[in-house]
Amino acid sequence: MCSSKKSPWIPTMVYVVDDSRSSDSLSSVLRAAKTELLMSRSILPMLPQRTDRYQEHIHQRMEADKERQRQYHDRHAGSEIRPLVPEQQIRVANHQGTRAPARVIRKGNEPRSYVIETANGNRLRHNRRHLRPARHDCQNTDHAYQATGTCIEDQSTETPVQTPEQVPTAQHPH
C-alpha cells in the first residue's frame, strides 16, 4: 500500500497522533493512535510543535553537552594574544615574508583589529595575529627587521669578517 512517494495522509496521521497526546482526559491518554498501534512504535510528528511541550531535562542535557564541547575546544584552541596599546611600536607582516616597522594608533572597531601607522605614514587596519610587538633592542624604525625576529643592523655589528692575512695560522709541533 505504501509507495516510495510521500503519502498525502502523513500530516493527518501526525495530527491524530499529536492530538491524542495533547488531550488531558484519561480515556485519550489510555488509547493510543491507530498508527502507533499498527506500527508498534511512537510516531515522531513532522509538523511544527509548540515549545511548551518540550521536555526540560532534554534541553538541559543538550546545554550541558554544548558547554562540555566548548570547554574541550577552548582547552586546545590556543592561548589569548595580549592586547596592544596605542603608540606601541610593532612589526607588521608584509607580503615579502618579513615584518615592517609600524606603531599602533588605536584599537579597531572589529574584534581583534587595530589601526596602525606604517613607517611611510599609511594608516591600515590589521588583525592582531599579523602584528607583533617590536623588540626593545630594535626600536629604530629605520632598521630592517627579518622574519627571524632579529634586527639587521644588530647583525652587522656582531663579529667582523676577517681577511685571510688577518687569520692566524696554526703552528703544529713535529
UniProtKB/TrEMBL annotation:
Positions of region (Disordered): 152-174
This protein's superkingdom?
Answer: Eukaryota
Protein name stated in the entry: Uncharacterized protein
According to its UniProt entry, this protein's organism is: Capitella teleta
